[in-house]
UniProtKB/TrEMBL annotation:
Biased composition (Basic and acidic residues): 460-469
Protein's organism: Ganoderma sinense ZZ0214-1
Statement: the UniProt record of this protein carries the keyword NADP: yes
Name of this chain's protein: tRNA-dihydrouridine(16/17) synthase [NAD(P)(+)]
CDD domains named among the record's database cross-references: DUS_like_FMN
Top-level lineage group: Eukaryota
GO molecular function, one term: flavin adenine dinucleotide binding
Family: Belongs to the Dus family. Dus1 subfamily.
Cofactor(s) needed by this chain: FMN
Recorded catalytic activity of this chain's protein: a 5,6-dihydrouridine in mRNA + NADP(+) = a uridine in mRNA + NADPH + H(+); 5,6-dihydrouridine(17) in tRNA + NAD(+) = uridine(17) in tRNA + NADH + H(+); 5,6-dihydrouridine(16) in tRNA + NAD(+) = uridine(16) in tRNA + NADH + H(+); a 5,6-dihydrouridine in mRNA + NAD(+) = a uridine in mRNA + NADH + H(+)
Entry-linked Gene3D superfamilies: Aldolase class I (3.20.20.70)
Protein's GO biological process: mRNA processing
EC number(s) on file: 1.3.1.88
């Protein structure tokens, strides 16, 4: 633990003391992401500059009951000693809950393995409405107060909260102050409202985050709208927040938090090292290399990674290359990992199937890089007129930027975004909570016509329906449908 003294160990640190001495004053934080901020991804993200990472949201009721045996180990493996171990810190475990007893019981089970416990107050999906958690607790302030306060009073580690803004600054600030009064020792403010989801996602409002930061005394983390490295500094300056948190930006480029290693004189298009400022100032490594590195981590650890997480990551990392080499995309989509294979320690040879395909893609990219030799990254990165952002060569990690939807409410650009008509990244399936993967209704409501571009979405509709049925009948397979079916 960074800076924790012997004296500190005997007492529970709060607010900035906790932020500094336990978390090490992180500036770059990777968000909780269902089926995507799993152990292997956390390790990879830390290698590329993340200073604090959250687990995916865990359903406190199901974790507390532990009724179905695999649920606990699927959500947080305490057996192999890797999750929450020395290589997996600092770490915050996130729960969704609407019952303080369930929450406390679950939090106590995991408090030895993490640095704080976070409560998800942001999930806007229908599944959260039905389960009465996430942003649907926004109207139940007494309950939220009790949830936070119960952990504040009874846990040996701090409680934190992640929430969405309200339509007005005043209500948002009042809400944030209530969370602080209840005992939250750090607040993550996602600058979108509960209504901003799916195709209505639009952009996050950094001004509301700024108002929250000015109103509370605990550390504030700003979440939303980070596409490029240069956005990190812009967001910190605009919000005054102590740190930034990224979800989608991190998934498409886990090096989002790192500057390009070399200056413009030796800028190299093969490695994605651009000039000193502007959109290309960040690090954009070769996507196949990072995909292979991620697979290496998955294979080397004893903790299991779900096939849906692996496939989801590969499709996001490799997205621009797969758009060009659609035969490879299809092959990747067809890979199936049988349960017996993946249940072997570290996944046995299950992941070799993916590795083989990624290596083949890498060879093709090598040819493309040779063909482009002599050109700078800037020359190879034309600005897309539909979005106003540069499109990097297809061998490099880069954000997935979609044009803003036509609806006037979602299309309105915020003050900090000079590019009008640009939607700043939104989750391909849902924004707040890919827990709704597997929930057929939620997905079809979110994005009726858009083609799926990532592996997690390559599950057929009939398969989704089956997973949903299985989850609600209590015989769910090992998917994160478990986490959301209540
Ligand atoms: C794949 C995915 C899974 C997510 N799962 C969670 C979750 O488990 N808990 C949570 O609080 N938010 C979750 N979110 C929301 C993010 O944490 C974040 O608040 C949101 O995506 C906005 O940040 P961004 O603009 O950087 O993507 C998820 C987002 C994505 C893209």
């Amino acid at each position: 633990m960074p800076g924790v003294t012997l004296e500190d160990k005997d007492r529970k640190l709060e607010g900035y003391e906790f932020f500094r001495n336990v978390l090490g004053s992180p500036k770059h934080i990777v968000a909780p992401m269902v089926d995507q901020s799993e152990l292997a991804w956390r390790k990879l993200s830390r290698r590329y500059g993340a200073q604090l990472v959250y687990t995916p949201m865990i359903n406190a009721k199901m974790y507390a009951e532990g009724a179905r045996k695999p649920f606990r180990e699927q959500n947080f493996d305490t057996v192999h000693g890797e999750e929450g171990g020395p290589e997996d810190r600092p770490l915050i475990v996130q729960f969704c809950a609407n019952n303080p007893d369930h929450l406390l019981k679950s939090a106590r089970l995991l408090e030895p393995f993490c640095d704080a416990v976070d409560i998800n107050l942001g999930c806007p999906q229908d599944i959260a409405r039905r389960g009465r958690y996430g942003s649907f607790l926004q109207d139940e302030w007494d309950l939220i107060y009790t949830l936070i306060n119960t952990l504040h009073k009874n846990l040996s580690i701090p409680v934190t909260a992640k929430f969405r803004v309200f339509p007005t600054v005043e209500k948002t600030v009042e809400y944030a102050k209530m969370l602080e009064r209840a005992g939250a020792q750090m607040l993550t403010c996602h600058g979108r409202t509960r209504e901003q989801r799916g195709h209505r996602s639009g952009v996050a409002d950094w001004e509301k985050i700024r108002a929250v930061k000015e109103a509370v005394s605990v550390p504030v983390v700003a979440n939303g709208n980070l596409l490029f490295y240069s956005d990190v500094a812009r967001c910190l300056a605009a919000t005054g927040a102590d740190a930034v948190m990224s979800a989608e930006g991190n998934l498409y480029n886990p090096a989002l938090f790192q500057p390009a290693p070399v200056a413009s004189a030796s800028a190299s298009a093969a490695d994605g090292d651009g000039d000193g400022d502007g959109y290309l100032a960040g690090r954009h490594p070769r996507n196949t290399h990072v995909a292979l590195e991620y697979l290496g981590i998955v294979k080397a650890q004893r903790t299991l990674t779900t096939p849906s997480a692996v496939k989801g990551h590969l499709f996001k990392l490799l997205r621009p290359a797969l758009a060009r080499y659609t035969d490879i995309r299809e092959r990747l989509g067809r890979v199936r990992i049988e349960r017996a294979e993946r249940d072997k320690e570290g996944g046995g040879t299950a992941w070799d199937k993916y590795e083989e395909i990624v290596r083949e893609l890498d060879e093709r990219l090598e040819g493309d890089i040779d063909a482009a030799s002599g050109k700078s990254l800037e020359e190879l990165s034309p600005v897309d007129p539909a979005t106003g952002f540069p499109v990097l060569p297809h061998w490099l990690l880069q954000p997935y930027i979609r044009p803003l939807p036509a609806e006037p409410d979602a299309a309105k650009p915020p003050a900090q975004n000079e590019k009008s008509g640009v939607e700043v990244v939104e989750c391909p399936v849902t924004v707040e909570d890919s827990a709704s993967r597997g929930a057929k209704r939620a997905i079809s409501e979110e994005r009726p016509a858009a083609p799926r571009s990532d592996g997690a979405e390559s599950v057929s509709e009939s398969k989704r329906a089956k997973l949903t049925e299985e989850a609600s009948s209590g015989s769910s397979p090992r998917t994160h449908v478990d986490a959301i079916a209540t």
